[in-house]
Amino acid sequence: MTHYDVLGVSESASTAEIRRAYRALARRYHPDVVGSGPSRARQEAERRMAAINLAWSVLGDAEKRRRYDRELHRGRESPSHRPGSARVSWVPGRPHPGFVPFDFDDEPDVGGPVVLDDDPIHGGRPVPRWIQVLPVGFLAVSLASFALYVVTSLRVLLGVGGVSFGLATVSFLVAPMVAMMRSSPPRG
Question: Where would you tag: which of 13, 29, 42, 117 has the fewest CB atoms within 10 A of its CB?
Answer without folding.
Answer: 117
